[in-house]
Design goal:
The complex is a heterotrimer.
Chain A lengths: L1 H12 L10 H6 L4 H30 L8 H23 L1 H7 L3 H5 L2 H12 L4 H29 L11 H16 L7
Helix pairs in contact in A: 1-8, 3-4, 3-7, 3-8, 4-5, 4-7, 7-8, 8-9
Chain B lengths: L1 H9 L14 H7 L3 H25 L8 H23 L1 H7 L10 H9 L6 H31 L1 E2 L2 E2 L14 H26 L15 H22 L1
Antiparallel strand pairs in B: 1-2
Chain C lengths: L1 H25 L6 H9 L13 H10 L12 H12 L9 E5 L20 H6 L16 H5 L5 E4 L2 E4 L9 H5 L5 E5 L4 E3 L7 H7 L9 H5 L5 E4 L2 E4 L1 H7 L6 H5 L5 E3 L28
Antiparallel strand pairs in C: 1-4, 2-3, 5-8, 6-7
Helix pairs in contact in C: 2-3, 2-4
Classes of the chains: A mainly alpha, B mainly alpha, C alpha+beta.
Chain lengths: 191, 239, 293
């Protein structure tokens, strides 16, 4: 039951991009085409899971025993950067179809608030290992959901008349705001 | 000296982040619930940006090209940890308000973007001017957006109540949707200004120029991907 | 304290660097350098005319597949075909230069509107609403999906119909794939005759909605001495290769015998030239959609 609540909370109530403001840059950049957004969403889920896994282990076994909590930021970001680099090479060699599908997005999300944000968030919320991984899956799914819905809407925008000043990012942001308003309705789901 | 002034002032209007040079939107939306938070975050970014620019400019000839980005990240991360600890020591309430976004300064596109685009190619004094200019511009923008949201959303400014106790605040502004809509409207305003300026000067405006994510080199690669995917979609539809 | 943190960071750094260095050797992927050379030779427009998703995809295909012809890039034309042939060591066959053609003359045929359309200004959207606002459901809808799809800016909307600039058209075929009514077709630039209608109806059904449309009477099919005209998918199909091979000795008897004058002769300047004014980018700027009229 708790897991179910965790998923609902992470995907709908506290959606990582619409309620927690993490990952806005790729959100606006990748939401122009539905297929690109699906690829990006899948890549974010994939990288977030791996990043949370590795950073959790390093925090538990390296940083805490040696009282190096203050190095968290540096170590996390370096680990994530190295990890994504490694994963890209691994996929290119071992799983070429997967590389074709999401390889191009991997460098884009290395230095992304969403991935580092989730890694730090699970530390601050003091989740255990399994809960952190589940949270990572849920957060990534929430990101993908918000991204795909916005992409669907923005594709329609291509053929409607929008005032000159609003075209591009401004109307995308306003649409994101309206979506965020819609997602706020889910707050009542969890008593 | 004149070139230093030029680099400094360009961050104040011409390439004002994040309104003209759309970079680093994550903290912009999150911390601007009050003007005070915006100012505090801006101050942290000035510190990190200017120092990282100087350091990167000093070591730019020593770092090998392949590990460039990782080195920039390492330098920026060290500075962010310093800022984090300074904040925890001297401005704890601010640290609590900013929450997770203090360590996220390290992945702020402004830091990495300016490092790659400017500091890696210019001498330290120019890099310092650029960093300071961008940082101050960023602070001004954040404070402006924060003030806007605070005045309409809570009826206060820097904590000082403006309209008295009977004022019904427009709470929408301090919540997530208000942030998006507010920023969207400001960017639309900047676009409108560009169009009006171009018309006044009689200059033909590049139709592809819009306030959009163009600052991040990562996103530029997306155009190619988007075109490719569009073609694949057409193939599948008619194929 | 300091030593511990410095040591930890150093060891983490060295470990990551070591793992990445080993990985880059172990997981090294051989990439054919010829692919990049061929990609450079191609125009780089990623128009999709070759049938591949982008120039790099075609370059990979032409290098790896021995049967892939080197002249599939229509945007680049014969020069690029020759260059690719040279780089891949294949023989460049001769390809017939083509151009896009609109099979609809609804304005001439006085096709009425079934209803006023105020929906999304897109052909595919309009088609969803009872096959579009025109009385003939196979007509050119005129909202400009093809105009927006064309990577070479060779099309524009004027008078509710699409027009093609033959000097800019590279016959990439993107517009053909985009049109929801399939009224666009690629024909050889040397084509002698063409049918100006894509209706799949016959006889009275066509006459009721359009004064000019093809009624599929079959006169042209019977009369052609080279037998290059046929009915495909309920529409007239002309095999231009056979027609050109037969030559002018038939004196275009198909055109003479067409009762509706919808099968017509084409002259070398077959489609109107580009206008002097800037072509419309958004359909409502040229489409007759004045809400106050």
């Amino acid at each position: 039951m708790d897991i179910f609540l965790l998923f609902i909370s992470a995907i709908f109530v506290n959606n990582i991009v619409l309620a927690q403001y993490l990952g806005n840059c790729p959100y606006l950049g990748c939401s122009k085409e539905k297929s690109v957004s699906i690829g990006m969403g899948a890549a974010v889920i994939f990288v977030t899971i791996m990043a949370t896994l590795f950073t959790f282990l390093i925090q538990k076994h390296v940083l805490l025993p040696f009282n190096l909590g203050y190095l968290q930021t540096i170590v996390f970001i370096l680990v994530i950067a190295a990890l994504v680099q490694f994963v890209e090479m691994f996929l290119k060699k071992m799983v070429p179809p997967l590389y074709k599908a999401l390889g191009i997005f991997l460098p884009l999300i290395t230095t992304n608030c969403a991935v580092l944000g989730v890694a730090i968030l699970v530390q601050r919320k003091e989740y255990d290992f399994v809960t952190s991984l589940l949270y990572a899956v849920a957060a990534g799914t929430g990101f993908m959901l918000a991204l795909v819905v916005l992409a669907g809407i923005r594709e329609r925008f291509e053929i409607t008349r929008i005032p000159r000043a609003m075209r591009g990012v401004p109307i995308g942001l306003i649409m994101a705001g309206i979506m965020s308003l819609a997602f706020m309705a889910f707050k009542g789901m969890i008593a | 000296m004149a070139s230093m002034m030029k680099e400094f002032t360009k961050g104040l209007w011409n390439e004002l982040p994040p309104f003209r040079l759309v970079l680093g939107l994550c903290p912009v939306l999150a911390v601007t619930t009050t003007a005070n938070n915006g100012l505090g975050m801006g101050a942290a970014v000035i510190f990190v940006l200017s120092l990282s620019n100087v350091i990167i400019s000093l070591v730019r000839n020593i770092i090998p090209k392949k590990v460039r980005i990782v080195c920039f990240i390492a330098i920026a991360a060290s500075l962010v940890v310093t800022v984090e600890m300074l904040m925890q020591a001297f401005a704890y309430p601010l640290y609590q308000q900013l929450g997770i976004f203090v360590p996220l300064i390290v992945v702020n596109c402004i830091i990495l973007g300016r490092a790659e685009a400017f500091a890696a190619k210019n001498p330290p004094h120019l890099a310092l001017a650029d960093g300071l200019g961008m940082g101050i511009g960023f602070t001004l923008s954040l404070t402006f957006l924060g003030s806007l949201r605070e005045i309409f959303g809570s009826g206060t400014w820097f904590g000082v109540s403006l309209f008295g106790p009977d004022f019904q605040p427009f709470t929408f502004m301090v919540q997530a949707p208000g942030a998006f809509v507010c920023l969207g409207l400001i960017l639309a305003g900047m676009n409108f200004l560009n169009v009006w300026q171009a018309k006044r000067k009689g200059v033909e405006l590049d139709p592809n120029f819009d306030a959009g994510c163009a600052g991040c080199a990562a996103c530029k690669g997306l155009e190619k991907i988007v075109n490719q995917k569009k073609l694949e979609r057409l193939e599948a539809a008619k194929g | 304290m300091i030593t511990v943190s410095v040591l930890t960071l150093f060891s983490l750094g060295f470990a990551s660097a070591g793992i990445l260095a080993i990985a880059s050797k172990v997981l090294y992927v051989e990439e054919d350098p010829r692919i990049e050379v061929v990609t450079e030779a191609l125009p780089g427009a990623n128009c999709g005319g070759c049938g591949f998703a982008g120039c790099e995809a075609y370059a990979a295909a032409v290098i790896n597949d021995p049967d892939m012809p080197p002249n599939k890039c229509c945007a680049g034309g014969p020069d690029v075909a020759a260059k690719v042939a040279e780089l891949t060591g294949k023989a460049a066959g001769d390809s017939e230069p083509e151009v896009a053609f609109r099979r609809c003359v609804k304005v001439e045929g006085n096709v009425a509107k079934k209803f006023d359309y105020f929906g999304i200004q897109s052909c595919s959207a309009a088609k969803l609403l009872q096959d579009g606002p025109d009385a003939c459901k196979y007509s050119c809808l005129g909202f400009g999906d093809c105009v927006r799809a064309c990577p070479f800016d060779a099309m524009w909307i004027e008078g509710d119909l699409v027009h093609i600039a033959p000097d800019k058209c590279t016959s990439c075929g993107t517009c053909v794939r985009t049109c929801p009514n399939s009224i666009l077709e690629l024909i050889p630039r040397r084509a002698r005759v063409m049918v100006f209608c894509s209706s799949q109806d016959k006889g009275k059904a066509v006459k009721d909605v359009c004064d000019a449309g093809c009624i599929s009477c079959g006169a042209c099919i019977k009369k052609c001495p080279a037998q290059c005209i046929s009915l495909v998918d309920e529409r007239i199909f002309i095999d231009h290769k056979a027609c050109l091979a037969y030559g002018p000795s038939c004196e275009e008897v198909c055109v003479e015998k067409c009762p509706r004058n919808i099968l017509r002769c084409l002259n070398p300047d077959l489609i109107a030239e580009a206008p002097d004014t800037e072509p419309a980018r958004y359909p409502e700027e040229s489409h007759v959609a004045d809400l106050n009229a």
